[in-house]
Amino acid sequence: MDWRRKGQRVALVPTMGALHDGHLSLVRQAKQHADHVIVSIFVNPTQFGPGEDFEQYPRSLHSDAELCRQEKVSLVFAPDFSEMYGAKKHDRHQYITFRIKKMTEYLCGPFRPGHFEGVLQVVNKLFNIVKPDVAVFGQKDIQQWYLIRKMIEELDHPIEMLMGPTRREPDGLARSSRNVYLSDPERKAAPMLFQTLQRVRNGLEKKGTREAIPVDGAIISEEVKRLSENGLKVEYFSIVSTPDLQPAAAIEPGQTYVIAVAVRFGKSRLIDNVIISHKELPES
Ligand code: AMP
Question: Is 118 a pocket residue for ligand 1 (Cβ < 6 Å)?
Fold first, then answer.
């Protein structure tokens, strides 16, 4: 491959496969910033906790490769375990691990111990193997997005990081490879998640003011109750500041926040989020 010698830019879109429109939108975005797009497909065991869905995770390499071909992806990198970790298959022992401070104290961090350490481990390896100029990750996994951007800064990867907006089904449910776990009634109820996030964001935005907008805990509790009444067991419903991902008591002018939720629903775990920025009133 003499892409680099020719001065061509390379973009990487890391995935775990079972590709859907969300992944493909990242590929299309990547293409606008590079001459070549590489898609990696690897269900990384080190980011799955005990009892999580590593074994059941949907795998469809052949149709994934076909979708990549249709999107004119230059290369699909689909290593097996030993290629990535050079050890016995499913030997999850890690000799060197990341230790993340602060940014995993909230949101998914406490509910998936070790998950983000595994994500940074594999993404760091992918960056070193592929050496992309650009990497595209989705807003859907927003805690992951901010952590990877932090890792890029702190470990001096010369990589431009882009965020792809969350692609949704027509009824608002965020597309996810894990949506196949939902039963029919669960699938019908699942769009509640995005509706709830939008309602909370609209409620905050409506209070157009130049001042900080306090976050009303009672409104959040009300929404959590409504979700539980519909069988969605809330792990967290949080408003956090960016990029540090710490709980926010108010929406401050000029700052960007994330309203994020995770629920257990039947056999599935669903996450979603929306971004909120303080909108000032126009000058009068
Ligand atoms: P995954 O295969 O689930 O590890 O996801 C691979 C990449 O696709 C990550 O950067 C995700 O954030 C992104 N992604 C997953 N779902 C969506 C979606 N619905 N819209 C946009 N990007 C997504």
Answer: no
Among residues 139, 164, 189, which one ends one of the domains? 164
Q: Which residues contact 77 (CB under 8 A, 6 or more apart)?
A: 38, 39, 40, 41, 42, 126, 129, 130
The CATH number of the domain holding residue 234 is 3.30.1300.10
Identified catalytic residue from 20, 23, 62, 90: 23
Cα-flanking dihedrals φ and ψ of residue 41, to 5°?
A: -125, 110
Residues 196 and 155 in one domain: no
pLDDT digits (tens, 9 = 90+) for 158-217: 999 999 999 999 999 999 999 999 999 999 999 999 999 999 999 998 766 778 999 999
Q: What global pTM score does this model have?
A: 0.95
Q: Using the mean position of ligand 1's atoms as its centre, give its distance from the Cα of residue 211 in Å.
A: 35
CA of 209 to the centre of ligand 1 (A): 34
> Each residue of 139-164: pLDDT tens digit?
999 999 999 999 999 999 999 999 99
Choose among 179, 216, 201, 219: nearest CA to 279: 201
Nearest CA to ligand 1 atom 14: 138
Sequence length of the chain is: 284
Q: Indicate if 23 belongs to the active site.
A: yes
- Running DSSP on this structure, what letter comes out for residue 5? T
CB 230: neighbour CB atoms within 10 A?
13
pLDDT tens-digit series, residues 43-82: 999 999 999 999 999 999 999 999 999 999 999 999 999 8
Which domain, by its residues, includes 154? 10-164
**d(C-alpha 47, C-alpha 54), whole Å:** 9
Q: How many CB atoms lie within 10 A of CB 153?
A: 11
Answer whether residue 275 is part of any domain. yes
* CA of 23, closest atom in ligand 1: 8
Task: Name the packing angle between helices 142-154 and 115-130 (round to 10°).
Answer: 50
